[in-house]
Design a protein that fits this description.
The protein has helices spanning 75-87, 142-152, 158-169; strands at 4-8, 14-19, 31-32, 34-39, 45-50, 61-62, 65-67, 90-98, 102-107, 110-115, 118-124, 134-140. The chain contains 3 helices and 12 strands, in the order E-E-E-E-E-E-E-H-E-E-E-E-E-H-H.
């Protein structure tokens, strides 16, 4: 079954759908997404390194899980679905951190163009990555996470670097 991506207008209203393999390219239409930062019981953030064969931003370190809610799917349900699929994890305590986040970024000719609310919460279980999605993972306290972003630069996805600064500025970097 092909995953459908929800296309949106500048106000975030759904205007249609498109099969995921057709969405990301040089002229990517504006679409709905989500980004989640999930912490363990000790307050460490789970970061992931995207698989090398991902269409968008392959091999880059990023936040715990990103993805696209399907038509009529709530963001919390989409986060749980992707965390389960990509990492074999459950999620709890999901709450909005940056509900109005929007970004556009390009890498190797592929454009991300998303209205992408950002969430924080906790994960349950032990990561068991799906190799087609996640290459590596680490648990980092927030200071170590931010230090790595600042010193490793482009090894981190552009949305994660920007979101982390905004989350920190808002004082929302704990779950």
């Amino acid at each position: 079954m092909v995953e459908l991506i929800v296309l949106v207008d500048d106000e975030g209203r759904a205007i249609g759908t498109m099969p995921k393999p057709e969405v990301h390219h040089g002229e990517t239409p504006l679409h709905r997404a989500f980004s989640a930062y999930l912490f363990d019981e000790a307050g460490r953030l789970l970061v992931t390194r995207r698989a090398e064969d991902k269409q968008t931003f392959p091999g880059m370190w990023t936040n715990t899980v990103c993805g696209h809610p399907g038509p009529d799917e709530a963001d919390g349900d989409a986060i749980a679905r992707r965390a389960g699929f990509e990492l074999g994890l459950g999620v709890t305590g999901i709450r909005p951190a940056l509900p109005g986040y929007r970004y556009r970024a390009e890498f190797l000719g592929v454009v991300e163009n998303e209205i992408c609310p950002v969430y924080v919460g906790r994960f349950t279980g032990t990561p068991a990555p799906e190799p087609s999605e996640v290459w590596e993972w680490e648990l980092l306290d927030w200071a170590a996470f931010r230090h790595r972003q600042e010193t490793e630069g482009d090894a981190w996805s552009p949305w994660c670097r920007e979101q982390a600064r905004l989350i920190e500025d808002a004082g929302l970097h704990t779950a």
